[in-house]
Amino acid sequence: MRFPENFLWGGAFAANQTEGAFDADGKGLSTADIFPKADRKTGGMFYRTYDQILEAVSDPDSMKYPKRRGIDFYHHYREDIAMFAEMGFKALRFSFSWPRIFPMGDEETPNRKGLDYYRNVISELKKYNITPIITLSHFEMPLNLSLKYNGWADRRLIEYFLRYAETVIDEFHDDIRYWITFNEIDATLHIPLMGAGLIEEKTEDIEKTKYQAIHHQFVASSLLTKYVHEHYPDLMIGCMSTKNLKYPATCRPEDCMQWLYETEADSACTDVQVFGEYPYVWKTMWRKKGITPEITEEDAAVLKNNTVDFVSFSYYASLVTSADGSKKEKTSANLLVGEKNPYLRQTPWGWQIDPVGLRFSLNQMYDRYKLPVFVAENGLGTIDVFENGTVNDDYRIDYLREHIREMGKAVEDGVPVFGYTYWGCIDCISASTSEMSKRYGFIYVDQNDDGSGTLKRYPKASFRWYQKVIASNGEDLD
Ligand code: BGP
User: Does residue 31 have its Cβ closer than 6 Å to ligand 1?
Assistant: First the structure.
């Protein structure tokens, strides 16, 4: 299999899971800064009560809220980027922290020190010719927008997001070509606080409100696409969702019908940003549930006339579905819970490892959208044992080898994949549990779940392996 000559091999992480420095240089509190650590037994922690949020706001303890310290990328970025360059990264997908630029979210002028920080990071990447791929909102927003407006429930968030996004694109358009608006925009439907700043206790009908919130996000994404296409036509702006790949439990028609329905529903977020309109499965579901989002004629025109230039997705695992799955044994895959697949192994967090699923997903995405496709996240989060100054993560090499091999088959199938940014290229704070011990990285970070540790960085065995993969443009997977 031959990957395109300019294939963007690299890594990915998020500001809220790595930067730390939660209150440095004028940054405002983010919705990520209020989550204490959970663990794989309790599962992901995505919900906070209003009182728990206020308690976090009044608590300066960064050790209790792991995303406030991340892995201190804020002060380690030169060292970390040098290690990415040593691996040969062509691209780095990361996010800007919205509250680092607009601390309260609704102020008129940006925080200059926040812009200066990202100017320094971009300059460091340019030194090594690493292409930045920026996500504008990755599971965080100024906490003030959540407390004061209930996040994206309020249409004014469109204006505030555009002010932030246009500010950073005006500032960095010469150095950043690839932009993604929202990380896993579908998260608003599954984890509305992390995805859209919705405080469920302050929300009259969360089911209806989350569809109104995601509609506001779609409109904001389309208006930004319009702005970019009109002002900076050589930039590429894309959308990103979780690829919730499922298989029908059996060939029984009822199971396959359930699979088809769920697959159509899970494609809706990318459908809206590529086709510029809501799919019939959502309209039918809204009608049956009495959900009537306020969609003005102007909104509909904005969505229709400003669609994305590329599609991207996160892929970690797959699930099974069936017509009567209620009694089936369940497991999780990123943000979803579904039925177990007897043919697949699981990580300690129950995510089912399915390399063929990446080929399946890439074909599905290109078959449906006929746009360039980018794998924004794929990775193995598991327990690593640090000894003798490294981690012998052969299991991570195996995971990568199998997934890259299947991605290569998708290239041979004719899918125009243009990049792969391995998630968690450096150990960071888990999105769902705020643990450090769920490690993804090619680089081990000496920090424990409780925040203790030296923060020193150490290459794992996978560091050298991935270096070889990139040097051979995906040919040498041994
Ligand atoms: C995705 C997020 C990432 C990342 C990944 C792994 O949903 O886009 O932020 O964290 O999941 O999830 P976790 O960190 O919970 O293992």
Answer: no
Distance 405 CA to ligand 1 centre (A): 23
Burial of 234 (0-12, 13-18, 19+ CB in 10 A): exposed
Q: State yes or no: is 377 an active-site residue.
A: yes
Residue located nearest, by CA, to atom 9 of ligand 1: 431
pTM over 0.90: yes
How close is the Cα of 92 to the center of ligand 1, in Å?
16
Positive or negative, the CA dihedral 42, 47, 50, 56 is: positive
Domains and CATH numbers, the chain: 8-471 (3.20.20.80)
In the three-class reduction of DSSP (H, G, I as helix; E, B as strand; rest coil), residue 176 is classed as coil
- pLDDT at 54 exceeding the cut of 80: yes
Determine whether 184 is an active site residue.
yes
The mean predicted confidence, pLDDT, of the chain is 96
Locate the ligand 1 atom nearest the alpha carbon of residue 44 and give its number: 15
> With a 6 A CB cut-off, is 14 part of the ligand 1 pocket?
yes
Any atom of ligand 1 within 6 Å of the Cβ of 140: no
301 C-alpha to ligand 1 centroid (Å): 33
Per-residue pLDDT tens digits for 419-474: 999 999 999 999 999 999 999 999 999 999 999 999 999 999 999 999 999 999 99
- Give me 60's structure tokens: 């300066």
Among positive and negative, which fits the CA dihedral 418, 474, 126, 101? positive
The predicted-structure confidence for 124-156, as pLDDT tens digits, reads as follows: 999 999 999 999 999 999 999 999 999 999 999
For residue 253, report the distance from its CA to the centre of ligand 1, in Å: 34
